[in-house]
Amino acid sequence: MSGRYGALGTTWAGSLAEMSVRRVTKSSDGQEKLIHQFLNVSDLNEWGTGIALQEFAQAPNLVKELRSMLEERRPGSLYVAYDVMKAGQHSIVVTAVNTAFAYVNGASQRHADIQAACWVIRDFGTDEQYKRFLGDIRRYQYQDQKRYDELWRNTIWSDNERERTVLDILLADERMYDSGLRYSDVARGELARLNTPKSH
Q1: Mean pLDDT score of the chain, rounded to an integer?
Q2: E strands of 65-179, at which residues?
Q3: Do the beta carbons of residue 28 and residue 60 sit within 8 Å?
Q4: CB within 8 A of 125, min separation 6: which ones?
Q5: Is residue 97 helix, strand or coil?
Q6: Which entry of 66, 74, 155, 195 is 20 to 30 Å from 45 by CA?
Q7: CA dihedral 134, 176, 106, 67 (to 10 degrees)
């Protein structure tokens, strides 16, 4: 890590967190540097970076750098973008959805990228874009079962009502999925969860 992620032209033998704090305390532009450092390692820790950067969701330098990373399809950037958009930063939605469709259709084989792509389209795509996504799931259903499984698995088990349309696809699929379960069995189980009143 010290070789690949040398901080601002130097190397640091300690942890990333310690190095980042040391830089912040010595700099007037510490927030910008901290955001950059988090984004720089987002391919190693998408989840942690996304959660941490929610606090800076409205920072102009975060928006600018993250949009550029999405356009370049940098690993981990879409996962981070999803968390930042959940925190209210919607100016990157169009770029994020475009990147998501590229990943759905093979531009990335990384699980975290494809997972984030499904979440972004489900939660932030327009109705028309979501219909297009459903078309992709149906297309892969018999062309590429591995991709089909990855897409529906990363779309359901949410609290978004849109997932019901994916469950409709699974309900009609009587093929065996895993461990004696059919795809339709998976769908019925998830529908039962969705239809169960939530208790507090």
Answers
A1: 90
A2: 176-178
A3: no
A4: 97, 100, 133
A5: helix
A6: 155
A7: 60
